[in-house]
Amino acid sequence: MIIEKIETLNLAVPLHTPFKTALRTVTVAETVVVKITCDNGVVGFGEAPPTHVITGDSLASIDYAVTKIITPQLIGQSLLQSERIFEKIHAALVGNSSAKAAVDIALYDCLAQQANSPLAQYLGGYHERIETDYTVSVNSPQQMAADAEDYCKKGFTVLKVKVGKDEIATDIKRITAIREKIGNDVLIRLDANQGWKPKEAVRAINEMEQSGLAIELVEQPVKAHDIQGLKYVTDNTDTMIMADESVFSPRDAKRILETCSADLINIKLMKAGGIHEAMKIAKLADVYGVECMVGSMIETKIGITAAANFAASQPNITRFDFDAPLMLSGDVIEGGIEYEGKQIHLNDAPGLGIAKLKEDFLQKGMD
Ligand code: MG
């Protein structure tokens, strides 16, 4: 199976409700779709959304990295030696993790199709069912409590609440308002998206512990680069602390694991540079007995289908944050994963199971 052609397409999908975190507000999901065609007719899809404030990738940089830098190295290469291909992708340029992920996902789609296996089974096939949490965007306490109640009514039993945008007293008001509204049966995890300072984070988390807010975990309380600060928070709180923006690569994960700087790791294909590197992070975490979540950027069903298949394949991936396609005003593909409330149904078709790319959200003038 030889790589014959690699193409990019731009999609823009409006969100039905703005997605707000400590770092950004998103109203339209923009993404670069990568389509790889092999000489035996197998076609694979991948995608990369630009998340400037986290990965540094932009629409233009993703397109340039894929078409001008990675593609020339891959055309004519055989997927029977896939390790050589992944080596070429990662050696082609530093950074640009999302661009690499888009190509990597499309290649895994091809490889699993060639093996006539759904991607989750191709990668190991561990979990038979996975359920997603749902994100409560950062807003006023009243708004967030109303949103949380709405998501619970829709059947979600785990809420990921965005905090870290304003002063900590406001965050505590937000969580208190949510807890009062939804009761104690729903699991709440927080994501501060780097918004707190280490001592502030410890103070806030300790206060939440003492007031019985029952927070399952806190994701990325401090700046991505502040590993000492992350460790300080982990060492000085009872609540589990999860590293997200602090872990892009397997090397980042190694540092966190060796120094016990976090209790959990959030793996995202767009940070890791695709499934090949994400798998290394999961396996390495497993060596340390550390569980992982798999999450995503604001991706369409293409990226989330890949992430969900990867997440379902590994035993120490125990948490799933795949609500992004539910925030979009429409689907960009036929096939892939399907949602039934919080339940995610993986597709039984080989690869990602994408039957077709819909044209509704294609940006004209790109090729
Ligand atoms: Mg996060």
**Which sheet architecture does the biggest sheet show?**
8 strands, parallel
Query: What does the average pLDDT come to?
Result: 96
Distance between termini?
25 Å
Count of helical segments? 13
Strand order, sheet with most strands: 5-6-7-8-9-10-11-12
Number of strands: 16
Helix content: 25-40%
Which stretches are poorly predicted, pLDDT < 50 over at least 5 residues?
none
CATH architecture of the largest domain: Alpha-Beta Barrel
Q: What fraction of the residues are assigned to beta strands by DSSP?
A: 15-25%
Query: Can you tell me the number of structural domains?
Result: 2
Going by helix content, strand content and strand pairing, the class is alpha/beta
Q: Rounded to an integer, what's the Rg over CA atoms?
A: 20 Å
CATH superfamily of the largest domain: Enolase-like C-terminal domain
Could you say what the CATH topology of the largest domain is called? TIM Barrel
Ligand catalogue: magnesium ion
CATH class of the largest domain: Alpha Beta
SSE order: EEEHHHHEEHEHEHEHEHEHHEHEHEEEE
Rough shape?
globular
Please characterize this protein's 3D structure:
With 367 residues, this protein is α/β, with parallel strands linked by helices. It has 2 domains: 3-117, Enolase-like, domain 1, CATH 3.30.390.10; 121-357, TIM Barrel (Alpha-Beta Barrel). It is built from 13 helices and 16 strands. The strands form 4 sheets. The chain has an 8-stranded parallel sheet. Helix 1 (59-74) packs across helix 3 and helix 2 (82-92) packs antiparallel against helix 3 (97-114). The longest helix is centred in the first third of the chain and has 18 residues, at 97-114. The model has no long low-confidence stretch (mean pLDDT 96). Magnesium ion binds at residues 191, 193, 219-220, 244, 266.
